[in-house]
């Protein structure tokens, strides 16, 4: 087996790690950095640029610079998450025939899976350059609250990038693994994970190398991007007050304001005030306007006080689910770049009545945990660590009048399997429709539709006599599988599956081929260029 890599595919930044002996280590990218912006740019010369290079050209090419794609992956175009994200993205989105999201790049439309595949492909290249050999196998992390569609879409992205996904693991769980293995501590741990796009809270119990996730919850509407937006809105307002001009319709100016806002927000984690300086932000025929503004930490805090507060009720609920009080938590670890904000650290300290453990690297621990998981799968760490994770979302079926019957509850340890008998309601009924849903809402229509299964070919019999056992399974990747068996004949039922989202196997294969052709062409062009220069 060649090297296995652990990948934290983040909303704003991604990170790569591997296991060296029994210790996880970060793999630097081709520029030598430990994290890579999850950004893809399509230049006017027809080139695709990734990471720092893509970020640098965002200013002049906002419509063809794709970021925060993780907010779109595996989601429906009409979903609230996508609607909220779209309002802030400079690139355009469209609806796919199956209701998924497509991204418009010039005249082309591409899927979020393809964009994520480009980032993953770049990370794979970084790992190959680091090891000096081909890399195929990976463990990839996803937010704990990602549902089946987002997990499957992330997996498809990895396949398109030429990676074999050994396991999909929850980000806070990975951070918990990195913390537990690094510090060799026992006790109850709360992982507070606030990255660029999402928030997750997970509670773990660590005991002599056994990592037991007790509960997990998440908020897909909360991340560093939301904090940036508050600063952007404030700056736009200030500019309007000072110059009576609305900058929000000027794409280029807006991109500059966005970048400056994010930078200022980061700086304010370490200083009490900073200056935003945007020369020539507006070039009018008669004059050019420069924009200079001082923003203090106090202003940032007042602009975002509700965002800082937002995770707390969710943490309370998560603790209640496992009947724990905040004081019962031995260690609090902070993951994700946004947790560097002092006000967040303060609120978390107040909530848990203890200071967060500061030995955890907020940007690297998730990837390090993924590397540890790779060691568990390859057997290298088998006798040191055992991981028991949970599903963050319930799984159930639709019943009459928009009802929802849960079959697997949230926070159930995975893998888990439950079998439920189904029968007919009419005499000689030949088929039964099973609608599988994921979520915790009381009504069927409020949950996410995973698939519809038509159990066909049932032998003619009086109503209620045939028994078809349908088995619902959530595997160790948090992914759902459903199978049906006719108990009378012992035969597997014919199941007509209509997955309600994602790419088909054939589409994935086509994209794998396309990606490979592009990679080969790039390598050929590079070789040609080298020859030309020699
Ligand atoms: P992640 O997804 O974990 O890489 O988190 C990225 C988010 O963390 C982005 O929204 C960044 O703006 C934010 N971030 C990074 N560094 C800081 C910092 N020093 N203070 C506040 N937020 C930060």
List keywords for this structure.
534 residues, alpha+beta, Nucleotidyltransferase, domain 5, Actin, Chain A, domain 4, Substrate Binding Domain Of DNAk, Chain A, domain 1, 3 domains, six-stranded mixed beta sheet, 12 helices, 29 strands, 31% strand, binds adenosine monophosphate
What topology emerges from the helices and strands here?
Layout (H helix, E strand, L loop, with lengths): L3 E5 L4 E8 L2 E4 L8 E3 L2 E3 L5 E3 L1 H5 L8 E2 L13 H7 L5 E4 L5 E5 L2 E3 L1 H20 L5 E6 L5 H13 L3 E7 H13 L3 E8 L4 E9 L2 E10 L4 H20 L7 H17 L5 E11 L4 E9 H13 L1 H11 L9 E5 L6 H11 L12 H14 L7 E5 L4 E5 L3 E6 L4 E2 L1 E7 L9 E7 L9 E9 L11 E7 L5 E7 L4 E2 L1 E6 L5 H29 L1
Parallel strand pairs: 1-11, 11-12, 13-18, 15-19
Antiparallel strand pairs: 1-2, 2-3, 2-4, 5-6, 5-7, 8-9, 9-10, 13-14, 14-15, 16-17, 19-22, 20-21, 20-24, 23-26, 24-25, 25-29, 26-27, 27-28
The site of adenosine monophosphate has 18 residues, from helix 6 and helix 7.
Number of strands: 29
How big a fraction of the residues is strand?
Answer: 25-35%
CATH superfamily of the largest domain: ATPase, nucleotide binding domain
Secondary structure category: alpha+beta
> How big is the Rg?
25 Å
Q: What is the 3D shape?
A: globular
Q: Helix content range of the residues, please?
A: 25-40%
Q: Which cofactor or ligand species appear?
A: adenosine monophosphate
Contiguous low-pLDDT stretches (5 residues minimum) are none
CATH topology of the largest domain: Nucleotidyltransferase, domain 5
């Amino acid at each position: 087996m060649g090297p296995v890599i652990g990948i934290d595919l983040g909303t704003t930044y991604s990170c790569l790690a591997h296991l060296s002996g029994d210790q996880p280590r970060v793999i630097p990218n081709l520029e030598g950095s430990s994290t890579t912006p999850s950004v893809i740019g399509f230049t006017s010369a027809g080139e695709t640029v990734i990471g720092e290079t893509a970020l640098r050209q965002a200013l002049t090419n906002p419509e063809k610079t794709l970021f925060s794609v993780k907010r779109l992956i595996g989601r429906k175009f009409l979903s609230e998450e996508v609607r909220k994200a779209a309002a802030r993205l400079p690139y355009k989105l469209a609806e796919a025939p199956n209701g998924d999201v497509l991204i418009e790049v010039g005249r082309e439309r591409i899927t979020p899976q393809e964009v994520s595949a480009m980032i993953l492909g770049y990370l794979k290249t970084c790992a190959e350059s680091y090891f000096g050999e081909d890399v195929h196998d990976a463990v990839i992390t996803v937010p704990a609250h990602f549902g089946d569609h987002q997990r499957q879409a992330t997996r498809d992205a990895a396949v398109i990038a030429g990676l074999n996904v050994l396991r999909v693991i929850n980000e806070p769980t990975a951070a918990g693994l990195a913390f537990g293995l690094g510090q060799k501590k026992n006790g109850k741990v709360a992982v507070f994970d606030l990255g660029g796009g999402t928030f997750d809270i997970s509670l773990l119990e660590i005991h002599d190398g056994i990592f037991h996730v007790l509960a997990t919850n998440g908020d897909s509407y909360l991340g560093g991007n939301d904090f940036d937006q508050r600063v952007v809105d404030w700056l736009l307002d200030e500019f309007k007050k000072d110059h009576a001009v609305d900058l929000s319709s000027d794409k280029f100016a807006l991109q500059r304001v966005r970048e400056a806002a994010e930078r200022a927000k980061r700086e304010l984690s370490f200083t009490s005030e900073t200056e935003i300086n945007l020369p020539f932000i507006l070039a009018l025929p008669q004059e050019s306007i420069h924009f200079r503004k001082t923003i203090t930490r106090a202003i940032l805090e007042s602009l975002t006080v509700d965002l800082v507060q937002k995770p707390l009720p969710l943490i309370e609920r998560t603790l209640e689910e496992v009947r724990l009080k905040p004081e019962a938590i031995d260690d609090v670890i902070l993951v994700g770049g946004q947790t560097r904000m002092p006000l967040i650290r303060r609120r978390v300290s107040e909530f848990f009545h203890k200071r967060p453990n500061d030995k955890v690297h907020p940007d690297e621990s998730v990837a390090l945990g993924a590397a540890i998981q790779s060691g568990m799968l390859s057997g290298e760490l088998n006798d040191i660590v055992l991981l028991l994770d949970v599903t963050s979302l319930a799984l159930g079926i639709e019943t009459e009048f928009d009802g929802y019957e849960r079959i697997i509850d949230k926070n159930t340890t995975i893998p888990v399997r439950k079998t439920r008998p189904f029968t007919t309601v009419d005499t000689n009924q030949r088929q039964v429709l099973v609608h599988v849903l994921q979520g915790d809402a009381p009504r069927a229509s409020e949950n996410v539709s995973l698939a519809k299964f038509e159990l066909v070919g049932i032998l003619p019999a009086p109503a209620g006599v045939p028994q078809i056992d349908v088995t619902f399974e959530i595997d160790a990747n948090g992914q759902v599988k459903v199978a049906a068996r006719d108990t009378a004949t012992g035969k597997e039922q014919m199941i007509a599956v209509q997955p309600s989202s994602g790419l088909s196997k054939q589409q994935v294969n086509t994209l794998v081929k396309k990606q490979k052709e592009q990679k080969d062409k790039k390598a050929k062009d590079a070789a040609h260029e080298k020859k030309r220069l020699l």
